[in-house]
Amino acid sequence: MTFNENANVGGNTARRRGAGVAVAGGGVVGLGAIAVLLLQLFTGQDFSSVLPLAPQGGASGGDSEIAQCETGADANANDSCRLAAGSVVLDEYWSGQVQGYRAPTLVIVNGSTSSSCGTASNQTGPFYCPPDEAVYVDPTFFGLMRDQFGASAGDLAQLYVLAHEYGHHVQYITGIMDQHPNDGAGATGNGVRTELQADCFAGAWVGAMTEEVDDNGVPYLQPPTQAQIADAINAAGAVGDDNIQQQSGGYTNPETWTHGSSAQRQRWFQLGYQSGVSACDTFGVPGGSL
Questions:
Q1: Mean pLDDT within 55-67
Q2: What's the whole-model pTM score?
């Protein structure tokens, strides 16, 4: 996804934090196979719970601003700035969709840092931590996404990842998570429905994001190309439960799914992209329609 070079993104509140060696943390709400199944692949442990979450220790460091991140040209040139700039556009979009919207904290992870949900690093992947009301992303993860899951992880795919995590924040502050707690019910359970709705929310934002403008009336983002949309859809499919299971063990078991199949994730992203937030009621459809 390309930012307009002269767009002003200097108002972002993203913070860079962290130093040290990554340590496996606790439960998170994240990009599904990215945020959780990497831990399962690397450790053999189950990190699929969403709530409740207990504080966990981990390496940390002081906060700092994202340097040299003032314009759309800066965002186009740097992954960290692209994410920080994306947070500006996401906050403006959701403030128009959710009454009383409050922005999450975006933490750009440098190596690793602690959160109330455990240690954030490129091994845990991007995730949303409800107690902190914060999104944690280590930009180096996108390289792992390419290497481990065959995703191209281009500009728009990176913003899709960010938008998915912001979707979880919206679910948290609007009470969706409380209304539909994770019941561990496999392919038709609330955990999968929660993740698919976050994919749909991400698609809705992608479909509308070029409407947001800076203080000077300059659109933050240029309309996405078909190749960029295809890249985002590719990213959604790469982190489907069935794809992860096939790559990690050569099997598929829907009863153990926590985030949905590749086809489901792609379909809900596209549904949001085409029809907006109103189309994203994943909790109101029968399991066979997911």
A1: 61
A2: 0.84
